[in-house]
Amino acid sequence: MIVPRFQPLALGRAPAPFSHPDYLFEIKWDGFRSLVRIEQGKCRLISRKGNEFKSLRTLNESVLAELRVRSADLDGEIVCLNDDGKPEFRDLLHRKGEPRFVAFDLLWYDGQDLRYSPLTERKHKLRAILPNDSDRVFYCDHIERDGESLFRVACENDLEGVVAKRKFDPYIENQASWLKIRNTSYSQWAGRAEPFDREGKAIPTLYCGMTVLERAKTLRSNPQDRGLYA
Fold first, then answer.
1. Is 76 within 8 Å of 139 (Cβ atoms)?
2. What is the assigned CATH class of domain 12-186+199-229?
3. CB atoms within 10 A of CB 161
């Protein structure tokens, strides 16, 4: 089955971290924004500008082997990780590290157009099709409501920031609210102009990790820490 061509949703910006019951929050991973398109027994990684990441053939093969779906279109981030599980953007840019894919949305699955479904439903289906024990393909987890605690943890762990997403929105431009909140002290901004991928010239964005999320949930449940995020 031929998968329709989709355009990744653009990220707006929020000037400061916030908490809200209608939003879920993800950590931003520093990498290349990419769609994964699986169709007719092949997998392609497509940049935000619609160009294929042809140099990442091994990652293409890993995604195809591990997802085992007839057709799908996923939105996510290509990253390289250091020994602490944190993104190393320059390793990815210069193809020095092992690329991995962090998936945070599912637009199409085996003939079903999911763009009009709520974000929470799409993420539930995404999690169901991703492998639990892969070291190449990861699910982008989230916390609900408490974006301020997750942002604090992102800063403590020297990550780029967080992304806030309205949880019942469809995957439709001008109907979905996706906002990035940057950590202005992020160490990997130093000496870095607007980065781009070599094939697609796509400005990268960055998304989430379980270790950091678990830390944020711990902070949120501790009454002594709640005042830090008010």
1. no
2. alpha beta
3. 23
Q: At what angle do helices 147-156 and 210-221 cross, to 10 degrees?
A: 120
Q: What's the one-letter identity of residue 89?
A: F
For residue 66, what pLDDT band results from cuts at 50, 70 and 90?
very high
DSSP for residue 10: P
- Report the distance separating Cα 150 and Cα 213, nearest Å: 7
CB 162 within 8 A of CB 25: yes
CB 183 within 8 A of CB 28: no
Closest by alpha carbon to 115, among 130, 127, 125? Answer: 125
* pLDDT class of 3 with cuts at 50, 70, 90: confident
| pLDDT, tens only, 172-217 | 999 999 999 999 999 998 766 554 434 333 333 333 344 455 544 4
CA-to-CA dists, residue 227 to 148, 168, 222, angstroms: 11, 28, 10
Closest CA relative to residue 124, chosen from 145, 105, 148: 105
Question: How confident is the model over 79-91, as a mean pLDDT?
Answer: 93
Is residue 145 within 8 Å of 193, Cβ to Cβ? no
Query: For residue 66, how many other CB atoms are within 10 A of its CB?
Result: 17
